[in-house]
Design goal:
The structure is a homodimer.
Chain A: E1 4-8, H1 14-24, H2 30-40, E2 45-50, E3 56-64, E4 71-79, H3 88-102, E5 107-113, H4 117-125, E6 129-138, E7 142-150
Parallel strand pairs in A: 4-5
Antiparallel strand pairs in A: 1-2, 2-3, 3-4, 5-7, 6-7
């Protein structure tokens, strides 16, 4: 039995998410990103919550291309380090993709630093495929992989 | 005669924008935001470029609410400190609003820290009105004003 639930983010989750995000994505502006996605794509922003303690264990953010509404983007996923290996990430991904499909999305892409082998391995297990490598994508000097998956 | 032009952002502008943004919005994740907006709302991302030197003088980012496509958001505007008071901001705002109107948007909102009097004054001159104040909006502890304008 799961002891956590995935539910839509609400603005009351913001502070907990900022604290969760800082050690995971230091300097990557989570506190700014959350506020924008909350307004622009409220249905594509999910959190996993411990059903007993109500602790936020992780989150996922998505978006849809304005000029190409069948293409979705997995913007970011973060799971607290002491909540990893509990399938939280899989449930977050499933919730996001279900909602994207409801909105007519049939292809999702994401960007990952080419050095982030844990994340790359996670995404490959979820059915993503590596489409492209792009040098110096992140400022000032980190390369990215673009991964894609049909929904 | 203008000696700058406003044009759509391209990914070749990214590094110059990161350098321009850092002193203006330190710690506010511009380098991350630019990459996401580049993919999600490419038509709502403009830069002002000096037509002689090709220096990037400023930028503006917008988005449209996925669940309410008549509502636009002015996500961020930044003008290099030595390019301010040259009407660059006004031209960037005009370009964004023209494109938003083309896309069917009839109302734009934005968020500004309630302490940022220079920005608030700029927006009020552009026809925005203050709609709401919200405590502790930015993590960890800054309040915001929500401003709105009919297009």
């Amino acid at each position: 039995m799961e002891y956590f639930q995935v539910r839509t983010y609400t603005s009351a989750d913001y502070e907990a998410l900022c604290r969760l995000d800082e050690p995971l994505f230091e300097g990557m502006g989570g506190h700014v990103l959350f506020r924008h996605i909350e307004e622009l794509f409220p249905n594509l922003f999910f959190v996993a919550e411990n059903t007993q303690t109500h602790e936020i264990m992780g989150y996922i953010l998505g978006g849809i291309h304005f000029n190409d509404p069948k293409t979705g983007k997995l913007i970011r996923i973060g799971v607290k380090s002491d909540c990893q290996r509990m399938d939280v990430g899989s449930h977050l991904v499933a919730a996001l993709f279900t909602e994207m499909k409801n909105q007519g999305v049939n292809k999702v892409h994401l960007t990952v630093a080419d050095t982030n082998t844990a994340a790359i391995s996670f995404y490959l297990k979820k059915g993503f495929q590596i489409r492209k490598r792009e040098e110096k994508y992140f400022y000032p000097n980190a390369s990215r992989l673009i991964l894609e998956k049909e929904l």
